[in-house]
Amino acid sequence: MRLRWGPAPRTLAALALVLLVAVGLAGFHFWSVRPQAVSAPETVEAGASEVVEDPLRPGGASPVAGVPPSSSPSPGAAGEIVVDVSGKVHRPGVQSLPAGSRVADALRAAGGVRAGTDVTGLNRARVLMDGEQVAVGLPQAQAAPGTAGGAAGAPGSSGPAAPLSLSAATKEQLETLPGVGPVLAQHIIDHRTDNGGFRSVDELRQVNGIGDRRFAVLRPLVQP
Questions:
Q1: Residue 159 domain boundaries
Q2: Is residue 93 part of a domain?
Q3: Is pLDDT above 70 for 151?
C-alpha cells in the first residue's frame, strides 16, 4: 500500500524543478520593481549661454531656446561734428569732434588759446553745431548763430560797427564772418579778383561754398 500511493522519484524531481523555477521568477520580479535612486538634474548657472549647431545660421551656432543671445556692442550712434577753429589758438583749422562737444573741447583740440588772448566774450560752455566756426581773439568777431567769437574788443558785441566790405576786406577780416573759415575766405578773394570786385552783395551767392542758408546769415553783415 505504501509503495502504491507514495510518489515516484521522477515525480518528486519534476515538482522540485517546477518549484525552483517559480522561486526564480518571483525573485526576478521583485528585483526588477525595486525602488531605485534617481539623481536630481544639474542646476544651470544664471547667465550660462549654451549654443547648438544650426546649419541655417552663419557660423553654425544658434542660442538654445529660452537663453537670450549675447548682445554685441553696437557702434556709437552719437556721430561727430566738424568745426573750424580760427584765430589765436596754437593749431587753427578744421577739427572733428564727437557730437555734443562744447567750445572748450574745440579749443582743446586746436592746442589751446594763445597766452594773453582775451576770451571774456567767448562762451566756452556752449554746445557746438556741425559746420560752425569758432573765432578766438580776432577783431570784429561775430557772435551770430553758428559762430562763437572771442573778440579783443567789447565782450558780447554782436557784430562790427559797420558792414564788412567784400571788395576791400582782408582774408583775416573775412574769416571773422560767421561760418567763414580760411578756405571760404580765399574763395571770396578769388571771386573778387576774377571779377574785379563785388558790385552787389547778391554776387556772394556765386562764391563756391556759399549756399542760401549761409548767404542769409552773411547778407546783413557785408556790403559790396
A1: 80-223
A2: yes
A3: no
Q: Which three cell numbers stand for residue 26?
A: 518571483
Region 207-220: mean pLDDT is 88
Q: Do residues 185 and 133 touch, judged by C-beta distance below 8 A?
A: no
Cα–Cα distance list, 197 to 16, 125, 183, 222 (Å): 135, 39, 18, 13
Report residue 217's pLDDT band, with 50, 70 and 90 as the boundaries: confident
Residue 62 lies in a domain: no
- Amino acid of residue 205: R
* Closest CA relative to residue 167, chosen from 195, 131, 127: 195
Using a 10 angstrom Cβ sphere, with 0-12 exposed, 13-18 middle and 19 or more buried, the burial of residue 22 is exposed
Q: Residue 39: pLDDT band by 50, 70, 90 thresholds?
A: low
Q: Is residue 86 part of a domain?
A: yes
CB contact at 8 A, 133 and 98: no
* pLDDT beyond 50 at 75: no
17/10 Cα distance (integer angstroms): 11
pLDDT digits (tens, 9 = 90+) for 99-130: 999 999 999 999 999 888 888 778 888 899 88
Rank 47-51, 93-97, 192-196 by mean pLDDT and report only the highest. 93-97
Burial of 68 (0-12, 13-18, 19+ CB in 10 A): exposed
> pTM (2 decimals)?
0.34
CATH number at residue 195: 1.10.150.320
198 domain residue, yes or no = yes
Domain count, the chain: 1
